[in-house]
Amino acid sequence: MKTFFRKLVLAIFIPRLFLAISILIFSLLLLFSLDNLSFLQPVKNFLNSETLSININEESYSAYDGLRFILLSTAFFSVTGFVIDLADKGINKLSQLNSSIFNSNTINRISLISKIFLFVLFIIIGLNILGVDLSSLAFLTSALVVGIGFGLQKIISNYVSGIILLFDNTIENEDIIQLNDGTLGTLKNTGQRNSRIRTFDGKEVMVPNEDLITSKVINYTHSDTDSRIEINIGVAYSSDLELVKELILEAALEHPRTLKDPKPNCFLREFADSSVNFLLHFWIGDVDEGRFGPQSEVMFDIWNKFKENDIEIPFPQRDINIKEHIK
Predict the structure, then answer these.
(1) Which of 156, 184, 205, 289 is the most exposed place for a label (fewest CB within 10 A)?
(2) What is the pTM of this model?
(3) Of 322, 323, 299, 303, which is closest to residue 313 (Cα–Cα)?
(4) Does the pLDDT at position 300 exceed 60?
């Protein structure tokens, strides 16, 4: 029993629940006071007077009706927010049951659907409890929706884009993506209004969902995690070019993260001013673990193999001839 009461006390002081209960109690207490305390009756009568009333579709609404609606709506939506938050936390725990089925993308979809369903359900229930005739407010609601649509066009666009992203498989959480402005990183979360990208230098970038829908986005891991790495190598003209190609491919194949299919390729690309230039292509199968590591290690291996075989990597040289001016 003590454990139960201890858990109950801790639950009451959770900020979201405490706020919802406080607003609910305050609203109900104020309405109860206006309805039952005699010294507040003049205030109620004044709020119910015809001078403070408006008519909408032959229905009369007083200032007291408006105050009652605001208080009950505030209390109702506070409780609704808490219930939705509670349901969201429960849904997020589904990953503990089976992480392969309930991954972050699936949980986001379930969470979004449940939030929309609960929000609409609570609105319908709340309006019925308040006794609001929706048909009488149809015109006012339409005008309000149009006004909000123009004023909050960007925000609504981001919310709609967030829904599209959650149900469209082109970009998902943990994908490595690159934006038009050059931002490169891992998509960590697709929220209702914006998405969070963690760059490889540890920055958290918040991107409006609309940008991910309307702009070009490069997804490095959409269908698989394979990625090609390119390395440019220049050698001296005195080098054995067949041996150079063999050593370059050998260095790539010896790396543990190099894929055998597709196999590495080495191309002779250019007879430049100071060097003969080769281009190495090799693939790794786990780009989410990084590209710079394999590239650096293969380049170190190429350097060591060239030194062992007396193959020179040249640097640009210029011959300057100074002619003496003869008077």
Answers:
(1) 289
(2) 0.55
(3) 303
(4) yes
